[in-house]
Amino acid sequence: MSVECFVTGGSGFVGQHLLARLTATGHKTWVLMRTPANIERVREQIGRLGGNPACIHAVEGDISREGLGLSEADKQRVSSASVAFHLAAQFSWGLTMERAREVNVQGALRVARLAASQRIRLLMVGGFMLQNLSHLASIGVDNECHENTNWPAVYGRVGGYEGSKLESHFAVIRYMQQAGADFTIVHPATVCGHSESGHILQGQPLAELIRNLAQGRFKAVPGTTRHWLPLVSVDYLVTMMTCAAFDPAMANQQILALYEHTPNLQEMLEQIAKTLNITAPRRHVPIGLLRWLLTIPGLAARFAISAESLNFIQTQRFDMSHSRQLELKYQLTHPDMARALEKTVRYIKGYLTH
Ligand SMILES: NC(=O)c1ccc[n+]([C@@H]2O[C@H](COP(=O)([O-])OP(=O)(O)OC[C@H]3O[C@@H](n4cnc5c(N)ncnc54)[C@H](OP(=O)(O)O)[C@@H]3O)[C@@H](O)[C@H]2O)c1
Questions:
Q1: 267-317, pLDDT tens digit by residue?
Q2: Which CATH class is domain 4-194+230-259+317-334?
């Protein structure tokens, strides 16, 4: 059955693959775009990714504007959607708390309001660290009663991007519960390229890590042999998102999109280095020491690494039972992730050498 969907963040990395998946399966999509003149470029790209460009329509808007900045006519257009996929976010390190809150927290609430007012499912993308409860506790997030959280202090500890992702998660759930509206949240691990083509956009955290390793900026492995950076392929992620979005049983549920057998960081760097024909670092550096080193002026730029990116390298193992149930129901499986990583590295090598 094909339905209409509203998508924010459709021009981004995950959004492009989601649009390809939705339109390849016949769904008409309304894509919120800050610059609708770019729609042709997006359509061409979705075509290259295997989607159906004819099913993609732009509506002009911006999540940082009241009512998403939608015109009355566009509001009417998107009112025929059955699901609102919210992916748009300002995804960068070094964001101020004010900017991060305006786009990532207030923006998410604006999309939630639209979905609730139209009585349609909101499918929101969170992040896997929201399922790392000991991490949340350690940075001062009160998981039971988040009204007690001192958000400015949390932003101070983890930075604007991560702070705003955490705050928006709790704010949207509270809003949707109060409105009696239907939501589903998918929490991705760090997203790896497409398992067949390796396609990934420049600037993505994994692409930056691979680039830094290729350019010899990675001098040591952050953390210990227990530290890992969980991955998920973009194709598995968007398939899981669409399964969850259209499943009535997923109302008000949260689910992890994460490959639990991702190797530890040292092994992952070795796999990447092998494809790059270079030697991976062997020495380990404690994350706390690295964080301190990065406060020294110039060092963060020299190593092209931000302290904020270290938040995602951790030792937590996750309860995957909920994800496994959905995998069983939809016969969804992770691709061969060693191969997906290799393809991703080759894809990045391609744009590093051009
Ligand atoms: N990639 C990962 O590793 C990862 C991991 C966990 C969670 N996530 C989450 O997954 C979601 C998608 O991530 P991504 O990697 O696809 O991000 P991305 O490539 O950086 O794309 C971000 C998208 O958001 C749009 N956007 C930004 N500000 C906007 C605004 N004010 N109004 C409307 N649209 C705006 C951008 O549109 P423009 O084209 O106009 O810039 C772009 O389409 C995000 O919520 C992110 O937090 C990602």
A1: 999 999 999 999 999 999 999 888 888 888 787 777 777 888 888 999 999
A2: alpha beta
